Amino acid sequence: xxxxxxxxxxxxxxxxxxxxxxxxDPIAAQDLLEQMLDPAGGPDVPPVSLAxxxxxxxxxxVVTWNTLIDAYHLTGDLTSALDVLERxxxxxxxxxxxxxxxxxxxVARRRTARGGARDPDLAxxxxxxxxxxxxxxxxxxxxxxxDACGRCGRSDLALKGLRMMLRQKAEEEEExxxxxxxSTAGGGRSSNRRGGGSGGLENExxxxxxAIDACARSGRVDTAMQLFRTMPKFGVKPNAITxxxxxxxxxxxxxxxRSSSSYSLSPTPSPCLxxxxxxxxxxxxxxxxxxGEEYDGNGEPAPRIAETLEVLRYxxxxxxxxxxxxxTSLMSCAGRLAKMESRIGGGTLDGxxxxxxxxxxxxxxxxxMRSLMRxxxxxxxxxxxxxxxxxxxxxxxxxxxxxxxxSDDPHTLLLKVHLVFQEMTARGVSxxxxxxxxxxxxxxxAGDVDRVRSVLRRIISEARKGGDNAFDGPNDTTWREALRGxxxxxxxxxxxxxxxxxxxxxxxxxxxxSNATAKENTGAEGSGTRNNWSPDSASFEAxxxxxxxxxxxxxxxxxxxxxxxxxxxxxxxxxxxSSDSSNNNQVTLDVAEEVRHDPQIMLLVLQAxxxxxxxxxxxRVAGNDANVVLFAPARQIAVELVTLECLxxxxxPQTSLDIKxxxxxxxxxxxxx
Length: 673
Prior knowledge:
Layout: H1 10-22, H2 26-37, H3 62-74, H4 78-90, H5 97-106, H6 121-132, H7 139-151, H8 155-186, H9 204-217, H10 221-230, H11 240-252, H12 275-291, H13 305-317, H14 324-343, H15 361-372, H16 388-398, H17 410-426, H18 433-445, H19 449-465, H20 476-489, H21 492-508, E1 516-517, H22 537-553, H23 557-574, E2 587-588, H24 592-596, H25 599-617, H26 634-642, H27 659-672
Parallel strand pairs: 1-2
């Protein structure tokens, strides 16, 4: 039993035409348009008689014409695209911003009757025509214009297009301010012209990216970098495409002309030169490599390392993940740098003349590893950097989730970071402390305590070796990441081991029998390294978190109480004020006051104290734990904690208030009275 045929409307036909366009088949798209214009229809379009006697439902609209222009754009056929524009007008359809954007994007893709393959003049003519018709160019339009200039090798015209966009943006913002002032005074509303906006340009970042690429492609790398640095001043943030494009150009950048080379790279300076002259030649060679002014020994342009690192650091700060292609290019660049450094006598590209710039293969590899570990501290500095997200990340990853900003699970991140580290060492590049700290963070994120311990030992071993590239030893970041790794794994034993290793110098220097502070850190005598640690609140929280989580996971009562007890003991030993100044077992942290005012840390200690008290009351665990010194009864400590101002109602972050925490608060308050 037959029914009425299904008659496609213009929306369905536009979808079909878009398929033809994506397949780069403009002939099929053009044929579909002709069927839509013909009342008799065709193979894909039923005749008007089947559409109720009206062709309105199948009449081409502006989307139809734009899609056909897109089809010609994808094949670079500018002549046919301009013909479609003329027919579009003949049928009473007014072009819009997308129409002109597609046409401008088609300019200079290949030689046609309307324009040459390297002639962007028609793109500017189309932009003028667009404005004359009252159609407002947007960021994508200017991106197409600037990109056309870049294809023609005309970076000067690309910059002209960028200036035109910025001028339009400034004029529109001024116009919007004036309209807002009039509207406020008169109580009315203003309207925009056709294709207008509300001040500011949509997708403006694309135009900046196209200008950066055009400049870098024509050898104006310094100008490209200046544009990159200027973008934020105009309220535009470089995105992943901007950074990827610029990095690719920087890694390929060198002298514009090989004939301009005034000297070649040799493994060692000429033996005919004096020692001073050899040093000068080697320094000049390093500087040329660093700044990208010369070609390397394989005839390839020397990459612009300083600028590449600047872009990588920006990406790290903005949590922009480098693409796989970018990683491959950076790895190749780092490998080339390692060869260059070896060829100039084993030195690095960060010699005395420009060491502040930081341009060694080690740093490139380290930045790669940092980029992988986005979404948290980069392990480069020794400053305390703790936030609510740090604790949330520890707990999320510990439960099998992912850290904030991570697209990969922690074990995959560790694998990627370790592969970069292996490639680095295989190239003969010596890791520095910043590099080890990033590796340590990756191991910690994965909760791999054995690897954390191994990296710590390697850091200490490398520090004891000494030499030109030696570092003093573990710093704040080193110990903080090690402790966080123990917290991720819920390993209280490892956390105590790492904490004791870091605290040993303090205990070794307390010869006067009085309470020491964490400020008195000069290193343990005979250790061969300096311990550059100043415990911060993040490190202390990781210690407590590791002990509490370890206690939660223990099945045997005695072991559970030991772990909870160690969390309370840490509070008593390093944070809690003591009236007994002769107690040699206490070392007050410099950040003790900060810790006492931190609701997250105090809540963890409170839970531990309540757990110790409950286990003692229930007599499930008899006797005292010789491995734990609480300095005061657990109940007393719990009462002290629950009355702290930071644990008052409304002060505790909601992320910390789980069922166990709420029960601990309730019990502790019941003990107050």
